[in-house]
Known about the structure:
The structure is a single chain. This protein has five helices and 24 strands. By secondary structure, it is an alpha+beta fold. It has two domains: 8-70, no CATH class; 94-447, Tachylectin-2, Chain A, CATH 2.115.10.20. Strands 2, 3, 4, 5 and 6 form a five-stranded antiparallel β-sheet that branches. The protein has a five-stranded antiparallel β-sheet with strand order 20-19-18-17-22, with no helix packed on it. The termini are far apart. The structure holds 3,6-anhydro-alpha-L-galactopyranose. Residues 119, 160, 197-198, 213, 277-278, 293, 337-338, 383 line the site of 3,6-anhydro-alpha-L-galactopyranose.
Amino acid sequence: MIKGSLTASFFIAPNKWFSRLAFSLGFFRLKLSSHRANFMGKLPLIPSVISAITLTFIASNSVAQDEVTATPLVEPSAAMKRYQTIWQNKNPYDNEFYSSFAYSELKGLPMEEGVSRRDASQIIKVADSYYVYYTKVTMPNKQPPVGYQKADINTPANTWDMADIYYATSKDSIHWQEQGIAVPRGPKGEFDDRSVFTPGVLAWQGKYYLYYQAVKFPYNQRSKNVIGMSWSNSPAGPWHRHEKPILTTGKSGVWQGEKPNRSKIKEEGEFDSLKVHDPFLLVFNNKIHLYYKAHPMGLSGDFKLTYPDFSGGLATADSPFGPFIKHPQNPVLNSGHEVVLWPYKSGIAALVTANGPEKNTIQWSPDGVNFEIKAHIVLPPDAAGPYVPDAYTNTKNGQGITWGISHVAQRKTQLWPHLIRFKTDLTGTKKRKLKRENIRFNKQALFNADKR
Ligand code: AAL
């Protein structure tokens, strides 16, 4: 029993000197008493035992109090909680969703004066060739576009107005050759007579489907953008135009005033009441998934909208011809600009760039619907068209992406949008090569950052 209480005090506070002292004192008294007991009988042992127990009790008690004040139970800070739960004590270079991006010229398709090439589709590989589809506008007299107000039947408003869809091929993914037009603007008076642009591609049961944004003349800020489709037996065409849009805008709000200003509304519509655009196709959970970028009527205005200015919608179908049914939980992304996704492991990953509270992140969802932020990124590709080898395989073991084609948009100092190549490593690798952090910009980039 003596031994037990002494050990207990030691156990409670093994490193406390006071406890050790109490232990030694108690033990010493005990030793002394037992020694005397040899000569004077067993009786004096009892007070010694009691004093040893008392001393140890006091010691352990004061040690316990000491402990409470020395190391009180403190909750970790919010930052530490996130670090432990969301980020799982990982540095970005250990995070499978983190990558940096490296850029290079697209050999064979350099910047060309008076021409806009932009908004590449995802890339597909058929036999031994890669195919990419993109927006192309040849500006009349090599003049830059004039804006919505001055645009007319012959003059483009912007670098995606009066566009057709072109395509290019490559054997090595580095050298590209423009092959010509894939899908032209539609016949006069049709929904796609003014411009067809920003394509997405689907390879499905031996046929190919191009989905793209389409607008009708006159094209202004209030023009509803819809998604059209053309299909072919070969990735090189010829393409057959589906006569009706495959996806249209959601329930309308009510405009305020006559001027075609997209920000002025009296009544709000659905999240995609103004535009459905940037179609991106995947096959997942046995369904064709068409993700798209959405704008509501009234964006960037004074009306307090329920939905974000830029969001991501999802519509699914069993056939490439539709019907594409919009997901009841739309929008599925609350931020972003051009729409970029890929199957990753058992779910879907998304590259969310440019706009909204969650811009510049990589997100992931187990079901293609409920996305969560998994990494923050710097310098992501604009309008990326990644090569997604398993985009249409209905996989539950998505392998990720390593390269693609993006664009350099127009600005005052650089008028002609053109396509470039990017490298990344979003395959879940542990290799550090494309996981650079602490990325800084040079002076020219800093000084020009907000000059459109
Ligand atoms: C792009 C895309 C769509 C927009 C415009 C051209 O980067 O989001 O295609 O309509 O900008």
